[in-house]
Amino acid sequence: MMNADGSNRRSPVAARRGFTLIELLLVLVILLALAGIIIPNLAGRSKQANTTAARVEFENIQTALRMFEIDCGRYPTLSEGLNALVEQPSDVQDEDWKGPYLERGVPKDPWGNEYVYKQPGRNNTRGYDLSCNGPDGEEGGGDDIDNWTRE
C-alpha cells in the first residue's frame, strides 16, 4: 500500500497489529506468579470444605435419627441401618412412620464412604454410634467424626 507521500513504508499503527514475544512472555510470567500465590491458599480449603460438609451432613443424619426415634419409639436397628430413615421398616406402623426423614436418601460422606451406624452403640450404649471415617476412609487416625467424642 502506498502512503500519501508515495513511499511504500507501513505506518506505525499498521505495523503494530500483534503482541511481541516479550510481551506474551511477560503476561505469562505475571499469570504464573499470581497462580503461585493463589493456588496454595486454595489447596487447603478443599479438605476444610469436605470436613465441614461431613459435619453438616452428620448433624442432619442425627436430627433424622432423633425424629425417627420420636415417631417410632426406637432408633433403627442395626439390620435396618440408616436406610430406615428413607424407607419404612416392615415392623413400624404406617401411622407412626412420618418419613422419609432424609429427603435425598442416605448420603455418603464427602470422600465417598458410607456413614457408620451401630445400634445399640458400643460407645453410646443407650442409643447409637454414628461415625464418619474422615478423609483417609479408615477408623482412627484422628480425622474421624463421631457422636461420642467432643472436640
Describe the structure.
The protein is mainly α and 151 residues long. The chain has helices spanning 12-15, 21-72; strands at 116-118, 129-132, 145-146. It has a domain at 48-146: 2-Layer Sandwich (Glycoprotein, Type 4 Pilin), CATH 3.30.700.10. The chain is built from two helices and three strands, in the order ααβββ. The protein has a three-stranded antiparallel beta sheet, covered by helices on one side. The chain is elongated and about 100 Å long. 14% of the residues are buried. The mean pLDDT is 83.
How are the SSEs ordered, and which strands pair?
Layout (H helix, E strand, L loop, with lengths): L11 H4 L5 H52 L43 E3 L10 E4 L12 E2 L5
In short:
With 151 residues, the chain is mainly α. The protein has helices spanning 12-15, 21-72, and strands at residues 116-118, 129-132, 145-146.
